[in-house]
Write a structure and sequence with these properties.
Layout (H helix, E strand, L loop, with lengths): L17 E5 L28 H11 L6 E5 L9 H9 L6 E6 L4 H11 L3 E5 L5 H8 L4 H14 L4 E7 L8 H11 L2 E6 L17 H11 L3 E3 L5 H4 L13 E5 L5 E5 L12 E4 L4 E3 L8 E2 L1 H5 L4 H13 L19 H4 L2
Parallel strand pairs: 1-2, 1-10, 2-3, 3-4, 4-5, 5-6, 6-9
Antiparallel strand pairs: 7-8, 8-9, 10-11, 11-12
Length: 346
């Protein structure tokens, strides 16, 4: 096997096949765990990778083993004609899956075009099920538009539609049971995400995290018991060297009667770093091997300039090789990245 065909395996034996692509840092809401409320300094549009530059980068990454893509932001649906990029990426030989994470406000008007372009997986960020609590999180209106977007996505054929709900102590305890019923009544899959230290205001505290096990206990007590969809522990999910690269972040459960799927991304209480299969590229073309990385690799200069495909591939390999063991949030060594979530890409 030539070096150009070797899989993307880091020094801890983790195989990488999942690329997250931020298409913009702009957003039409202002979630406190992601962005400042006002006076956000966005990148100049000339700094953003073009659709053609993104396509080229992905075409280089595919022979290295990348076969899953997810488009993020900011809010990706504020990027004009996003379905055009979806069609370009879905058509690349070797790409098995293209997903999208959106706040859903523009989803109703774009769902059909995105589905027709080849998008099949969609996650909608929604932290509350009332307009009042929605505005407390987002500092903007738009709850009804998000609900319309979820309904439109299901109507055009997205299945499942997943809801990403950030869990914050002191804010979302009362949302847990309504989300459980929402999953049972609508067929969407609700995924609770532990509040992570990627806010623009550096206001995160561990004490503000509503932990996954607490949510499981609450749902089990007030609706009915939740049971894992696959009976395994964390160690069973860790990948051996040259393994399958399937390590996803969510632990999946279903209510005991089989109605209503619930997932948990317990990045704080149950880090999944040792099964991580992801790399990500920011909207301005910086390659990151971890959401919490303090280092970035500039690939925009290669993609936009005179860089060869081999040089781009080498940059990807070097980034993966330099990946650390984990994010260290639960240690005194943790340093919050200078970029907040909206600038990195969710």
């Amino acid at each position: 096997m030539s070096s150009s065909q070797l899989p993307l395996i880091d020094s801890f034996g983790r195989l990488h096949n999942n690329l997250r692509i931020s298409v913009t840092d702009r957003c039409n809401i202002r979630c406190f765990y992601c962005m400042p409320a006002e006076d956000v300094q966005f990148m100049d549009k000339s700094e953003l990778l073009t659709f053609e530059e993104i396509e080229r980068f992905v075409r280089v990454a595919v022979p290295l083993g990348i076969d899953k893509l997810r488009l993020t932001g900011g809010e990706p649906l504020v990027r004009r004609e996003l379905h055009t990029l979806v069609a370009k990426l879905a058509a690349i030989p070797g790409i098995k899956d293209v997903g999208l994470t959106t706040n859903g406000i523009f989803l109703a008007e774009q769902a059909a075009d995105l589905y027709a372009a080849g998008l099949r997986r969609i996650n909608v960020s929604l932290d509350a099920l009332t307009p009042e609590k929605f505005k407390q999180f987002t500092r903007r209106d738009g709850f009804e538009k998000v609900i319309e977007g979820i309904q439109a996505a299901r109507r055009v054929g997205f299945d499942p539609v997943k809801i990403n709900a950030v869990s914050v102590r002191g804010m979302t305890e009362d949302e847990v049971v309504p989300f459980g019923h929402f999953a049972r009544e609508t067929g969407v899959e609700v995924r609770f995400i532990e509040y992570m230290p990627l806010d623009a205001d550096n206001a995160w505290e561990r004490g503000k995290v509503l932990f996954a096990h607490e949510i499981i206990e609450k749902l089990s007590a007030e609706i009915m018991p939740l049971v894992p969809t696959v009976l395994h522990d964390r160690t069973a999910r860790e990948q051996p060297a040259h393994g399958g690269g399937h390590g996803g972040p969510a632990s999946d459960f279903v209510f005991e009667d089989g109605v209503g799927r619930i997932g948990f991304i317990a990045s704080i209480s149950q880090p999944f770093c040792m099964s991580c299969n992801r790399i990500r590229i920011t909207a301005d073309g910086k390659l990151r091997n971890c959401l919490f990385s303090l280092d970035e690799t500039d690939v925009r200069s290669l993609v936009r300039g005179d860089g060869t495909d081999d040089q781009i591939a080498s940059a990807i390999r070097s980034s993966v090789a330099a990946k650390k063991e984990g994010h260290e949030i639960n240690t005194a060594r943790f340093i919050q990245p200078a970029r907040p979530m909206y600038s990195i890409g969710g």
